[in-house]
Specification:
Strand content: 15-25%
Distance between the termini: 59 Å
Largest sheet: 8 strands, mixed
Number of strands: 19
Shape: elongated
């Protein structure tokens, strides 16, 4: 009898669009027009590939749609995220923790359904008891739902979401939750923090307290943010109910930030700017983009110890392959620089003659893993040579070229021959020359790029002129 693994089979559970025709248009065409109109107000705004998180309001689109759009306009629609974490406050249920919607398979909006990453919701619940599921926290909650149409119109194909409602004023709990979420706070994922700001003071008072809160968030300093919230609360402004309804979600985000992030304030308005007839009771709206700082090639270096470790990884990878094993490259994880995603080439020489050279050009794998794999490939997969034999190993010298992070250039004036490698990309075609190629030929800068364009990228001699150009350096040892 055939052995089959029994799996739970259920009809997809769809969390309905409870706020359609309340916070935003319920008709798909009208909703698309509404969102696109707000996004169009920011057509000239800068977009970034390194957006780690957004802080956006969640009021009715009539009031906060423009401010929300200023945040979503920073996203590059071509950037692919693996998943989107949605964090927001609970307006209906006290949780003393975080409710993760691990029941729903999809969230619905008039524009279609957005998939929930149920595997990640399960992992969060298993990681800490502070993450659980309470249905009532999600059923009527608007703060996450209203973000989805903006994501749908800006990104098109929205990656799976992880919906989290945070409701606890226990700082130790917030810190624990931030520690659980921190491993997900990487370039693969986007975090969207949903929060309005001052609730119900006068127009003038809102501008004052919201400025204080906004400056604190922009500082990236948790203590300054907490101090601003406390100062606002003690200011005795009439009708000030809160400085930020998403205070706890914002704190969770800020607890994950360090010197590698930049908080960029984008826009501020309050409801009095939209409805000028009522300045006595308003709600404030801020938007922020949290950018992951890009390390420049000038900042990227390797110590002698790190170079020695990489040489050891390369040699061990070849030895393990000869023994029918594969190297586990995680032995270098205690060195932060070695955990960077970098490209690398590994060259093998025997008595001064090339015996194999293979490289990976890209920033999609950790450096130890790339070095291990390229060393193995150079020894056994370079089609120009026969596979390396065990008896040759003692005569082999290993040379590694670690490629620093790429930097986009707009003109050849930014390219330095002998220092920079060039990477040319246009559509599906691409090609590169390492910096040391310039040491082997007597080419001008234009010839260097022309040869790369024609001989490596297949774009023709002048194809580089309307292609994307990137430079990088190589640390050779």
């Amino acid at each position: 009898m055939m052995n089959m693994r029994t799996e739970e089979i259920h009809n997809p559970i769809v969390r309905p669009a409870t706020q359609a025709n309340r916070f935003y248009e319920g008709n798909p065409q009208q909703l698309s027009h509404e969102v696109d109109s707000f996004l169009a107000l920011h057509d000239g705004s800068a977009t970034y590939n390194n957006v780690a998180a957004l802080i956006v309001p969640h009021a009715g689109y009539y009031y906060s749609g423009n401010v929300a759009a200023s945040a979503y306009a920073t996203l590059n629609p071509q950037k692919h995220y693996q998943r989107i974490f949605l964090l927001g406050p609970s307006h209906h249920e006290w949780l003393d923790g975080a409710s993760v919607n691990s029941e729903a398979d999809f969230y619905a909006t008039p524009l279609g359904k957005v998939k929930v990453d149920r595997e990640t919701t399960r992992q969060l619940r298993e990681a800490d008891s502070l993450f659980f599921y309470q249905k009532k926290a999600h059923d009527r909650e608007h703060c996450l739902e209203v973000q989805l149409p903006f994501l749908q119109r800006r990104l098109g194909n929205v990656p799976p979401i992880v919906p989290i409602i945070i409701s606890t004023n226990d700082f130790a709990h917030l810190r624990r939750m931030a520690e659980v979420l921190k491993p997900y706070f990487n370039d693969d994922n986007l975090f969207v923090i949903s929060s309005d700001f001052s609730h119900y003071p006068s127009y003038e008072d809102a501008c004052e307290v919201d400025a204080r809160t906004g400056e604190a968030i922009a500082s990236g300093d948790v203590e300054q943010f907490l101090a601003a919230i406390e100062l606002n609360a003690r200011s005795e402004k009439d009708n000030l109910a809160t400085s930020a309804c998403g205070e706890f979600a914002i704190l969770t985000l800020m607890l994950m930030l360090d010197e590698h992030y930049e908080v960029k304030h984008l826009m501020y308005q309050n409801s009095g700017d939209i409805d000028s007839h009522d300045h006595s009771r308003v709600v404030g709206y801020h938007s922020f983009a949290i950018l992951r700082k890009q390390q420049s090639d000038e900042d990227f270096t390797l110590s002698d110890q790190e170079k020695k470790i990489l040489k050891g990884i390369a040699l061990q990878s070849i030895k393990d392959s000869l023994d029918g094993k594969r190297l586990d490259p995680t032995l270098a994880t205690e060195f932060p620089t070695l955990n960077r995603n970098c490209g690398a080439f590994v060259s093998l020489h025997k008595h001064g003659q090339l015996r194999g050279c293979i490289g990976h050009f890209g920033e999609d794998f950790p450096l130890p893993e790339i070095v291990a794999e390229m060393a193995r490939a150079a020894a056994f997969e370079d089609p120009r040579f026969t596979p390396l034999r065990r008896e040759e190993l003692d005569d082999i010298d290993i040379e590694i070229s670690v490629l620093t992070p790429m930097r986009r250039i707009q003109s050849l004036d930014e390219f330095q021959l002998h220092r920079h490698g060039i990477y040319i990309r246009k559509g599906y075609r691409s090609g590169t020359f390492l910096p040391q190629v310039a040491d082997e030929v007597n080419w001008t800068k234009e010839e260097f790029v022309g040869h790369c364009s024609r001989d490596k990228a297949g774009l023709g001699w002048n194809g580089w002129r309307d292609a994307e150009l990137y430079v990088y350096e190589a640390i050779v040892f």
